[in-house]
Amino acid sequence: MPHSPCSDVTQREPESQCDNLGFARVDLARLRRQGVPEVVYGAGKTGEQIAAILESLRDHGQTPALVTRIDSAKAATVSAAMGNSFEYFPDARLGRLGSPRAPDGHGPIVIAAAGTSDIHVAEEAALTAETLGNEVKRLYDIGVAGLHRLIACADDLSSASVVVAVAGMEGALASVVGGLVSCPVVAVPTSVGYGASFGGVSALLAMLNSCAAGVSVVNIDNGFGAGFLAHRINHTGIRK
Amino acid sequence: MPHSPCSDVTQREPESQCDNLGFARVDLARLRRQGVPEVVYGAGKTGEQIAAILESLRDHGQTPALVTRIDSAKAATVSAAMGNSFEYFPDARLGRLGSPRAPDGHGPIVIAAAGTSDIHVAEEAALTAETLGNEVKRLYDIGVAGLHRLIACADDLSSASVVVAVAGMEGALASVVGGLVSCPVVAVPTSVGYGASFGGVSALLAMLNSCAAGVSVVNIDNGFGAGFLAHRINHTGIRK
Amino acid sequence: MPHSPCSDVTQREPESQCDNLGFARVDLARLRRQGVPEVVYGAGKTGEQIAAILESLRDHGQTPALVTRIDSAKAATVSAAMGNSFEYFPDARLGRLGSPRAPDGHGPIVIAAAGTSDIHVAEEAALTAETLGNEVKRLYDIGVAGLHRLIACADDLSSASVVVAVAGMEGALASVVGGLVSCPVVAVPTSVGYGASFGGVSALLAMLNSCAAGVSVVNIDNGFGAGFLAHRINHTGIRK
Amino acid sequence: MPHSPCSDVTQREPESQCDNLGFARVDLARLRRQGVPEVVYGAGKTGEQIAAILESLRDHGQTPALVTRIDSAKAATVSAAMGNSFEYFPDARLGRLGSPRAPDGHGPIVIAAAGTSDIHVAEEAALTAETLGNEVKRLYDIGVAGLHRLIACADDLSSASVVVAVAGMEGALASVVGGLVSCPVVAVPTSVGYGASFGGVSALLAMLNSCAAGVSVVNIDNGFGAGFLAHRINHTGIRK
Amino acid sequence: MPHSPCSDVTQREPESQCDNLGFARVDLARLRRQGVPEVVYGAGKTGEQIAAILESLRDHGQTPALVTRIDSAKAATVSAAMGNSFEYFPDARLGRLGSPRAPDGHGPIVIAAAGTSDIHVAEEAALTAETLGNEVKRLYDIGVAGLHRLIACADDLSSASVVVAVAGMEGALASVVGGLVSCPVVAVPTSVGYGASFGGVSALLAMLNSCAAGVSVVNIDNGFGAGFLAHRINHTGIRK
Amino acid sequence: MPHSPCSDVTQREPESQCDNLGFARVDLARLRRQGVPEVVYGAGKTGEQIAAILESLRDHGQTPALVTRIDSAKAATVSAAMGNSFEYFPDARLGRLGSPRAPDGHGPIVIAAAGTSDIHVAEEAALTAETLGNEVKRLYDIGVAGLHRLIACADDLSSASVVVAVAGMEGALASVVGGLVSCPVVAVPTSVGYGASFGGVSALLAMLNSCAAGVSVVNIDNGFGAGFLAHRINHTGIRK
Amino acid sequence: MPHSPCSDVTQREPESQCDNLGFARVDLARLRRQGVPEVVYGAGKTGEQIAAILESLRDHGQTPALVTRIDSAKAATVSAAMGNSFEYFPDARLGRLGSPRAPDGHGPIVIAAAGTSDIHVAEEAALTAETLGNEVKRLYDIGVAGLHRLIACADDLSSASVVVAVAGMEGALASVVGGLVSCPVVAVPTSVGYGASFGGVSALLAMLNSCAAGVSVVNIDNGFGAGFLAHRINHTGIRK
Amino acid sequence: MPHSPCSDVTQREPESQCDNLGFARVDLARLRRQGVPEVVYGAGKTGEQIAAILESLRDHGQTPALVTRIDSAKAATVSAAMGNSFEYFPDARLGRLGSPRAPDGHGPIVIAAAGTSDIHVAEEAALTAETLGNEVKRLYDIGVAGLHRLIACADDLSSASVVVAVAGMEGALASVVGGLVSCPVVAVPTSVGYGASFGGVSALLAMLNSCAAGVSVVNIDNGFGAGFLAHRINHTGIRK
């Protein structure tokens, strides 16, 4: 693929560091530096651009590689270019090049989701963590309005190295889970809701103000970020 | 309908508590615990998912059951699956499985709406309250800019056990009604308006700041929540 | 006390309706119309003004009368003018003229508070409800981060005709309580917290977005409004 | 008083247009151009600066002159410098140099205020309008929660050429008055309230979204602006 | 046309006050009470509902009648029902039933618009004012970035009884015009802009904070409100 | 093309100052006064209106002329009217009439963009600066998460007279670049991101709070404004 | 110390779970359930209340115990009551009862702070982590505007199991650090800044939108939360 | 002065790059790298800390050095430590060590301020620019409500290499000046105003949305940043 002319400056980074495609500089040092290849943010890129970046990653042995926020049309373009090694998960709007790593973390990562509508974000987190080499347990539709459903899952929650708590609306799941477990909790607010949920802001604020210690927060609907961070936490001391 | 594989954890809750469909855990204890079956939030679920949950509720005798924020396409899917026992109210975007209960509350619930554009929210409240066993009186288009229209309804307002006040724009109806009646007022801000109405935020804030005591507020456009709460208030001491 | 000259218009309301003090028109019809005398909002009034209004209420037999948001300095001024019949509650910043009514509602009102810092708002609600004729149970420091404390109070919660849920920070108490009880829940967000709690906005938004049905919300720190509304709900069908 | 050296540029405007004091350029053309002398915004100026500007206005025959948002300490400084011709109104935080003009507008301006706490803003409007040559009627404490108090003032409202509606909290007074009268209504939101009143924002938004036509809005607590605009409206066609 | 069944309460207002269509209570007293018939807010109503309301107004002699925020599809429905007496102005999204009144105000109303993109809001104001009986002068594309264009219009601005200043983006036009004229200025923020214009909020805030006295503000894109208010101001003392 | 009748006021500006097209007053003095012809804001204008303005500019020798925020459909209309002299850049949504000026500034302008999705804004800046007579260097996809890519560009950054830093999400590029260079930095926040990026607000706020001195900010996605300002800075002392 | 009468409900929790002091229910199960005793939030409690809670914790062997957001006056009260075992750290507004645990985590926790003004928040994080049994390295004043200072710390950053990144203003430190390390990063926005920093909101938003994966965020100024979470992460798989 | 123990990491940066004081790492490379020594942000530092940093700068020949946002008490502490070489400007809350550089830029920098209350921000800009080697002209109190005052300054504005436009309230000065000049305009919103000025946000938004090209914006009240940037612009091509 010819490089775009939009970057005037010639490729002066060392070959092993970066592949300058003009519209993108693929960070080839990411795998060595951070243990995980560069992840491609699919929104705002064309299918062709995504494919070119994945090719570069594949050619430099940087797999499994993930593409986030890629819709089905772009995924079809990428599939046509990359063949079978590219897999697409429509619920999670996630693409993956190459096979997941074998799980080698401290323990299972639990993905807890408050409602059915939160599942697509939860799946983005789950698939990300699985791809990077983690066992994942899914606990879906355990919102706090039916507390007995949540309490029935107490053993699964206790078994986790990390819990990812996914919730929209009032986002209370993170606080309640945070009070039950002794491991880190990564809270993901979702845009599920209407009116004064303000596209996830209410859940975000609730999670930032959690009265339970040990809870931290990622961006609204950022299932990928939560899964990635959970992976890192689950490999603390195992590196990388 | 086969259960989704997305929840890894097997069904360990007692049969009578919860039906785990994978994508949803139907709360079968809700009727016993709270006097009303679980209400299905239709946004973010497919028609097939909604039908599966309603089947579960029907099979466990948990009717009348409500589905909120369901559009006509999903409603058609549900109707095809459930037959005549499912009724759809397009103005209110509400679906109902089973017959309404007979009215047995303290008195009538009055649903007051400021303008014609607020009617779909008002109807969601009215139908919810009627389904759960309440007499409902509708007073529509009685906004405060034509005060004589509101004052002409004074007797109806006085007869209420609860008033649900539905208004967009500046939301002043709640305060004016709150000053006229001696029963609880449930205020519902609507997203009717433009510009600095901010999708209902102006009405929401006005209602939260009502100078009339005895007014409380639910989420923007949350007709269901208002109707449900009005039902509960209207059954105080009658339980449940 | 001489009437302020700042209102140019002479007193044309019928004697029994209103007492025009110039700076205030005391609403003498409130007791008859709404079952409760006018409540004095203390902020923005001088101690002298508050005393004058209370005098007017007392002279027209409109007690017990409440003054909200009155600081201790103003309270001292009022006490000096009114004598023993005026009682001041510093925690709740509440003043009361006359004795509380005997409890005659459907059942107890439970005031649940998430943390110690929320108690002053909770007390404002509790004292308001007690004054107007309700039995009140206080359940304090039962925030969701220590769920067992909340669950240990399940019987008290179940016994309530109305629950007032008071919480700052992420305000999750309202949702968790709302999922446990079958009576109306009045949620009061408090300004307890820091940073992204935005003076109670996070708790307010969480409560408006509660996934539990049957929850409505009053203004931030509005303990009075919650206690007043709980009183009204607890007297539904008993009127007034 | 020596001129501040902070303005490097010498006084090149024609004498009759502007008096350059260094820290301020007194607009001497304002009276001729707009019918009213420049009004001094007292916040952010020292008492000495205010006195110097007033001296300049007096020396050029530009009275009555107003100073807004001036606290009592600065007012004392100004009084000491200017003598008896300067009058201070502490409730309205307003200072005035020279005598009010005789009323010569189309009719009375009615200043309606929702509550006692709104009076200081209402007085700023009232005194401004009186100074500029208008008859003013004050209707205070006629908030919408006691509608009969407002309706009792219907004749006074009908007699107005302009109504200034002053209210905090939910700001509903503007809409209700706007529905009753056929003259222009100038709405002034006040910062009276707490919690979700956000320092007057809730009232401001409510007034901007008024369902009554003929209502416009000035800044929060801007009694001066409302009084000034009411004066202009009341002199339409009389000019100036 | 049969009345909608959605309003349960029968028509108890006096015939001359209100025509209860079920989905709307047409305020027939508006013309007598406020000098102008009820104006129909077209958004959120169907074409059929709008036509029914206009019929009611026509049958009671309440013309010229205006419909705001009506799109071309609804306008076609109304035209089909009402015939030639209904006129549609697509730029302004305004419909009018009946002929404009003859101009009888104090003087011309000037509609000043900052840019070409603001014209549809400006036209809504202009047509409203013309319909209600005012001479209107249009001054378009005189934004402050080309000050000489604005200054070239100084004579037209000076001749006005009222100026309506329409601007998006930074909304500075209102302040600059406010400093040049001695009549009331009605400022209309528009949603023209992008990014930090926030759909007109930046212009709205600028106009509320205008350093020029005599400026008041209506809602974003509320050309109708501005034209209506300008009409009222232009008829002060002429009534009604 | 006939002039629109929507501006009632006849063309009283001197011929050389302004061409009044009715819907627009083309500012013909701009080139002389500010060194650059008026730039046409394409959003909210029709293709026909844009073409008419460009014709006026061309007829008065005011080229090269730019049209911003013009979509491809409008561009086609303009092309049909103007012929080959009009060029359209779809990535940047920019149109240009006439040839770019020869570069004559102090040095190169560097356009640095954080990610691939920011390129369309970066290109708008780059093309604007090139058109007005500047050498431009593009450095794309050098976001701070891969610092080595940014540091590899240090020489290019040092060579700049001005750097335009384009970034969405957290907008950190501006601060990091600002700490590396000694020339002015113009920061352009973009709407790239999701959730709590709030359409570019997060990047905007970050850039306004930059701890690096010498950074200023333009509106979200305002590539044109940044390119224009960079041009002005690059011609300081060369004028104009 | 006598128990406050404000909680009406007698102590029905099992002795080992909770100590009901009336104003507070000390969670004695926290140590067993979550590995760390309850942490006392000092804001909104009196010195006496804090001392009573600490006594309860000490009497049940729950040390080391932390008090956050305690000012020096309250700390003096607590010191007087508790003696030498209570230590106060004024910079961090932190109190500690009992000795820190010996470090037993996976590796060092690095606390990186952007500026001198951020140190009090950084110290709260550092002391919290040290108390709970972690080695802590402090890297202060390494903001991104002087990138070489940050890069000079690369080895220290690489050695960390967890990095806590503390920054106000534009909060870019989190993203830059996140791009350099392969361990989890806990970002703490601080309220350092002015104007559009909005008390830490700008830094918060920047951190939530970090383009570097592996970053999560806690509340503004929440040094305690960050230190606590870093402790948990550093003990993943070591439990507890 | 002994170094604070709060930074555990020993001084590994090269001597010439950085002086690690523990609480601060003085960036000694700033002068060489960026042409201006590090500027000390005084808020959040003690007088002692400021003095220590200034000592370090002086000892390494890095003067003139500036301290921003330093109150008079801290300034006194610094003066006592540093002697006569430290000068304090209370209006601008600015401290300076060493003499200003001789002016050597392209031309004068004009500092235009809208009102008297904006002068302290304007002075911070003016003194910063003078210190760094620029001729400065001050034009104060030329707000747009008195346009003739602004137009009277047209020649001074035209003579500028850069204009710094300082305004609060509606911030219109930036747009009007931007339309008059052909040099870069740096806009500084100030927190002058009340109500809906939101501490400078309204002015900030107006300036970001300026319809005049060539305007960029710095943080609210950031006079220093504007003066610094103006200096950089005024030295474009002169470097450094």
Description:
The structure is a homooctamer of 240-residue chains. Chain A is α/β, with parallel strands linked by helices. The first copy, chain A, folds into two domains: 7-97, no CATH class; 109-234, Rossmann fold (3-Layer(aba) Sandwich), CATH 3.40.50. Helix content of chain A is 33%, strand content 18%. Chain A has helices spanning 30-34, 47-59, 72-82, 119-131, 147-151, 154-158, 173-180, 201-208, 223-234, and strands spanning 18-20, 25-27, 40-41, 65-68, 86-89, 94-97, 109-113, 136-140, 162-167, 185-189, 215-217. Chain A has a five-stranded parallel beta sheet, sandwiched between helices. In chain A, strands 3-4-6-5 form a four-stranded mixed beta sheet, with helices on both faces. In chain A, strands 1-2 form a two-stranded antiparallel ribbon. In chain A, strand 10, helix 8 and strand 11 form a beta-alpha-beta unit. In chain A, helix 2 (47-59) packs across helix 3 (72-82) and helix 4 (119-131) runs parallel beside helix 9 (223-234). Chain A is globular, with a radius of gyration of 19 Å. Residues 1-15 of chain A have low confidence and may be disordered. Chains in contact: A-B, A-C, A-F, A-G, B-C, B-D, B-E, C-D, C-G, D-E, D-H, E-F, E-H, F-G, F-H, G-H. The G-H interface holds G 115-117, 119, 123, 136-142, 146, 148-149, 152-153, 156, 192, 194-197 and H 6-9, 12-13, 17-18, 22-25, 27, 29-30, 38, 41, 43-45, 49, 69, 189, 191, 199-201, 204, 219-222.
